[in-house]
Amino acid sequence: xxxxxxxxxxxxxxxxxxxxxxxxxxxxxxxxxxxxxxxxxxxxxxxxxxxxxxxxxxxxxxxxxxxxxxxxxxxxxxxxxxxxxxxxxxxxxxxxxxxxxxxxxxxxxxxxxxxxxxxxxxxxxxxxxxxxxxxxxxxxxxxxxxxxxxxxxxxxxxxxxxxxxxxxxxxxxxxxxxxxxxxxxxxxxxxxxxxxxxxxxxxxxxxxxxxxxxxxxxxxxxx
Length: 223
Hints:
Layout: E1 6-12, H1 17-28, E2 31-38, H2 45-56, E3 60-65, H3 70-77, E4 82-85, H4 95-113, E5 120-124, H5 128-131, H6 150-155, H7 159-177, E6 182-185, H8 201-208
Parallel strand pairs: 1-2, 1-4, 2-3, 4-5, 5-6
Helix pairs in contact: 3-4, 4-7
Organism: Populus deltoides
Domain NAD-dependent epimerase/dehydratase: 14-200
Pfam family, one: Epimerase
């Protein structure tokens, strides 16, 4: 039985770990996918996997984008009904990456606002945007009201958490202003089958432990 062809959707950055598996899942369900890939220095292992897959899948198109270039995002979004936004930095996060991620999130949401066919934005954030604060040990419930304390993140140099907190804040503010239908997914530690030899430094820091996590083992939160 043929898979019913569903609307076109965009995944950005499709070369991130989460983005790649979203892309694979959408293709298996019959969607036409615009894989928007940020261009780094040289082709990454994940990007090669996607380009190889595109040669086999008629419903997969690859677009090179720069999230700081609003117009390149518009090109990738053309004809799409939804945007899966999964911004990530393959080289890890420092204090300089924060502004870049915030500006990228704003450009993605604004591009969606200017694309008539877009019906929904699925914004991939992180649990780290919701849990980091002085009294983390006493926190049990995490919901849409929960945000990481920005000064606490700066003090402990939790740049990944701060980038996710500020970029999600910016995305929500603009989405509400433009009256867009947006939902955010705040995942915890994401693990799964390997795709390439590419290691996510933000994940490795949590597996190895950091100075900021010396007194933190495993926390249980209710959603």
